[in-house]
Write a structure and sequence with these properties.
single chain; 384 residues; 2 domains; 68% helix; globular
């Protein structure tokens, strides 16, 4: 399916490459390699983000493997409308095949996308201030609102059960209550994961670095075609186009990102022809080239995943209660084995201490079973 969509889009990509690279001078070709290197570094940083988040969830995945998976999933983002959804699903399936708990993988995907969204909006406010779009007090107030809103969202996500109980206690059972109840019933375990202050700060910082690397790719491409543009103008144009492209359900914002970049650059005073050529060259590198290579990588990894005979991950992700994936069946097996041995056992509470009675015997302190004859037999302590 991905290869078919890539074939449909190939003619448009060929036209974009021809128009863009007609302006390239061989004396500036080093900027092309710089742009490709910066674009590659972006996926390395994204892989590092997922490694940090998965480690917080108790799973293990190397930065290289995570970067390759994120790069491959970007092929779906660039080919399918609302591609973030199927790309996230593919990522979760790949995590599962590598022995990562599904809830831990889902939490890492949600947390990574949340951090990227918050930092993109923050950089957009900085870009608006750099080019003088909007009053400074409004931009500063928007920045504070963004920080407080993000912190409140994270705090609220961790306290969904408490909020649900508070709404029910005060008679509020409307739409908000029903949404919270549905979330609490289906995704309650997600609220148990926490990035922590240090890891959370690192994830936000790396998310900002990933956007800055893509902005630097735009700078390098404009140098490549010979049209130097002010850095603050390119920052504003890049962040505005990325936010606009994320809002509309198009593959990687195709068409919308280009229009947003050209419009924002024209707004800052760049000649329209220069803006169009630079944007086409940028999208040829950051969209067409990346989407093509990522789609091929996705096909190869998907084919390889079908041949995986079992779990290949390094570790097991614990649940919110700290129980790992492999621990769960082991503990269940022990409980099932212990249950027949203790059939007929009743727990009696006397004098503030628990006493297990089995055929006249009692469970003495230290986990020993004392039969009626007084002979002590070691017994593993098991919760009934």
């Amino acid at each position: 399916m991905a290869l078919v969509l890539l074939g449909v889009k190939a003619p448009n990509a060929a036209g974009s490459f021809t128009m863009a690279f007609r302006h390239i001078d061989s004396r500036r070709v080093e900027w092309l390699f710089a742009g490709l290197g910066l674009e590659s570094a972006t996926f390395v940083v994204l892989g590092l983000i997922y490694r940090i988040l998965l480690r917080r969830a108790g799973a293990r995945l190397g930065t290289g493997a995570a970067s390759l998976l994120v790069f491959a999933s970007s092929g779906l983002v660039g080919l399918i409308p609302v591609g973030t959804v199927p790309a996230s699903g593919w990522l979760l399936d790949q995590f599962r095949r590598r022995g990562i708990d599904q809830c831990a993988g889902l939490w890492s995907v949600v947390a990574a996308n949340f951090a990227l969204a918050v930092t993109a909006l923050g950089l957009l406010l900085i870009g608006c201030g750099a080019v003088g779009v909007g009053p400074v007090p409004v931009l500063v107030g928007s920045g504070f609102a963004l920080v407080l809103g993000a912190a409140g969202f994270v705090r609220g996500a961790h306290r969904v059960p408490a909020i649900e109980r508070w709404l029910a206690g005060h008679g509020h059972r409307g739409l908000v209550f029903r949404l919270l109840h549905r979330f609490s019933a289906t995704c309650a375990e997600l609220a148990g994961w926490r990035a922590g202050v240090i890891s959370g700060t690192a994830v936000l910082g790396l998310s900002a670095v990933s956007w800055i690397l893509q902005w630097m790719t735009l700078v390098a491409v404009f140098e490549l075609v010979g049209f130097t543009a002010p850095l603050h103008a390119l920052l504003f144009a890049f962040t505005a186009s990325q936010v606009l492209g994320a809002v509309l359900p198009l593959p990687a914002g195709v068409g919308v990102v280009e229009g947003g970049l050209v419009g924002a650059l024209a707004l800052t005073g760049m000649p329209l022809g220069h803006a169009i050529v630079g944007v086409i060259a940028f999208r040829a590198v950051s969209y067409w080239l990346v989407t093509g290579l990522a789609t091929l990588t996705l096909v190869v990894l998907s084919h390889h995943s079908r041949n995986l005979g079992g779990v290949t991950g390094e570790g097991d992700a614990p649940s919110a209660e700290g129980r790992t994936v492999k621990d769960a069946p082991r503990r269940a097996g022990r409980d099932e084995e212990a249950a027949p041995a203790l059939s007929g056992t009743a727990r009696a509470r006397a004098g503030g201490s628990d006493e297990v009675v089995r055929g006249g015997g009692t469970l003495a302190p230290g986990g020993r079973t004392v039969p009626p004859g007084g002979r002590t037999v070691a017994l593993a302590r098991t919760e009934l």
